[in-house]
């Protein structure tokens, strides 16, 4: 609450300063930018529709109606000089983004999806705090949600060192890399205390920045490890006295994803730890980008993995397949289609239906996002970190049979269409629509499978007579056998300084 009050005071100070200095140039090196948005979600049903709450970094309540206020104060890196095109060797920035919601039960909730400081020296960046980000190759603007890190959950607090985008390293800028290494803290009582996040990624770009065609390839890796909890005390096969391995001399095994031989013979650890320390999730990514008559086409694939079998593609074709088309037409028509995204998510293979495969050194039934030691699996604060289509059981229709796992439905085929266009340059229209066939999880299938349709149409209108003011409206619906049927809408206003 103190952080929110400080943010309000800073916001008011900036507003007063700007009101006295209107017409004068912005002191951009020191003055933060400010966004303020207020709105409300109204629905005749108690559940907030899927596409209103999804991929919103954990700020949208699962039940409606509710009101919401978002304040965003930020200073970004300064853009390169317009004449010399040279950017500073050293720069810094910060973000503070408190969000307050107030629901029909007169309950207020404060979350801070973003609060971090960052510094950059040449092409290397370091930041500390919570930061909104996604992980993978694809259309981050209109995607249904990247497989490994989708922006669906509240960001995990962490420290990270990384490149600033793609940095050329060889062959006259033909080869460039984008890499990062992070450590985070996961503390979500009473579920788990003192757990840690290890995260890294490495991506290669083949093709110069000005090339017509570029190819991308890379991998990302997330590990939840360490921590202690009371529920672990009740199962000595999973942990000793409720404590998971947490010594820092184990960190190399976390990073490299393997455990030394005869690990189970060491005192203080269980046979479960002899397989691998922590819960590992990630994706291999590949993408092709090319220009066609001034438009840009991006084809991409994010291959899901959780263990050795999926690392070796025993679970193919599981993952997210996508195509994005960015149109740069100079048409004189009132309405212009600017972006179109098609995606297909499949997670039905999972390296087979059986965990133990006779005659094989690999294991099947990967059971995506679930984990025996971490009973809430690949989630944070109750929300899925990865693709939102692997949804926690608490968000599904409770009137139907669900397996007693945190993610009772992780075998899915999903088709998605996203489209964006402008009308007279002042009205931005966005469509998101998805249909999924849901088959349950390994060992506990839905019979029959459950179909689910969800859609959203949103509009953002820039008001010319109100400086930097945008009116926002959204309509959304869920219809099917996975979620409770729901309909709802959002109305809001956003102003920037």
Give the key terms.
497 residues, mainly beta, 18-stranded antiparallel barrel, 5 helices, 21 strands, globular, disordered N terminus
Describe it.
- This protein is mainly β and 497 residues long.
- It is built from 5 helices and 21 strands.
- It has an 18-stranded antiparallel β-barrel. A two-stranded antiparallel sheet has the order 15-16.
State the major sheet.
18 strands, antiparallel, barrel
Secondary-structure element series: HEHEEEEEEEEEHHEEHEEEEEEEEE
Q: Uncertain spans, ≥5 residues at pLDDT below 50?
A: 1-27
Q: How would you sum up the global shape?
A: globular
Backbone CA Rg: 24 Å
Tally of helical runs: 5
* Mean residue pLDDT: 89
Strand content: over 45%
Oligomerization status of the protein chains: single chain
Got a strand count? 21
Give the fraction of residues assigned to helices: under 10%
- The computed structural class is mainly beta
């Amino acid at each position: 609450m103190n952080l929110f009050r400080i943010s309000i005071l800073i916001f008011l100070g900036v507003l007063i300063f700007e009101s006295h200095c209107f017409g004068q140039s912005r002191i951009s090196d020191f003055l933060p930018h400010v966004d303020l948005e207020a709105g409300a979600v109204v629905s005749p049903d108690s559940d907030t529709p899927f596409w209103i709450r999804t991929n919103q970094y954990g700020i949208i309540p699962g039940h409606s109606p509710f009101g919401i206020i978002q304040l965003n104060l930020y200073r970004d890196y300064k853009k390169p000089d317009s004449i010399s095109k040279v950017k500073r060797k050293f720069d810094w920035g910060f973000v503070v983004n408190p969000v307050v919601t107030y629901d029909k039960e007169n309950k207020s909730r404060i979350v801070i999806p973003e609060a971090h400081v960052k510094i950059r020296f040449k092409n290397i960046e370091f930041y500390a705090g919570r930061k909104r980000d996604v992980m993978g190759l694809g259309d981050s603007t209109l995607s249904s949600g990247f497989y490994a890190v989708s922006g669906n959950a509240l960001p995990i607090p962490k420290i990270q060192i990384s490149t600033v985008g793609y940095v050329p390293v060889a062959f006259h800028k033909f080869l460039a890399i984008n890499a990062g290494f992070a450590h985070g803290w996961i503390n979500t009582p009473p579920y788990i205390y003192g757990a840690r996040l290890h995260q890294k990624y490495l991506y290669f770009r083949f093709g110069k920045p000005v090339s017509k065609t570029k190819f991308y390839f890379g991998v990302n890796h997330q590990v939840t490890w360490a921590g202690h909890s009371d529920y672990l005390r009740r199962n000595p096969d999973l942990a000793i006295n409720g404590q998971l391995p947490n010594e820092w001399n184990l960190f190399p095994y976390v990073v490299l994803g393997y455990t030394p031989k005869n690990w189970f013979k060491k005192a203080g650890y269980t046979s479960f730890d002899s397989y691998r320390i922590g819960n590992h999730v990630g994706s291999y990514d590949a993408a092709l980008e090319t220009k066609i008559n001034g438009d840009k086409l991006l084809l991409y694939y994010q291959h899901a993995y959780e263990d050795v079998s999926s690392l070796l593609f025993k679970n193919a074709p599981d993952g997210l397949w996508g195509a994005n088309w960015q149109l740069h037409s100079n048409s004189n028509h009132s309405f212009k289609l600017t972006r179109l995204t098609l995606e297909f998510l499949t997670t039905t293979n999972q390296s087979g239906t059986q965990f133990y495969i006779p005659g094989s050194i690999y294991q099947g039934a990967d059971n995506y996002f679930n984990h025996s030691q971490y009973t809430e699996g690949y989630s944070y604060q109750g929300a899925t970190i990865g693709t939102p289509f692997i949804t926690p059981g608490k968000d599904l229709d409770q009137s139907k049979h669900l397996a007693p796992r945190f993610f009772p439905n992780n075998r899915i085929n999903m088709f998605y269409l996203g489209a964006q266009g402008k009308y007279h340059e002042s009205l931005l229209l966005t469509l998101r629509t998805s249909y999924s066939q849901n088959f349950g999880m390994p060992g506990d299938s839905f019979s029959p499978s459950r179909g689910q349709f969800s859609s959203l149409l949103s509009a953002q209108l820039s008001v010319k007579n109100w400086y930097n003011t945008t009116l926002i409206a959204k309509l959304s619906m869920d219809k099917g056998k996975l979620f409770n049927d729901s309909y709802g809408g959002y109305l809001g206003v956003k102003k920037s300084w």
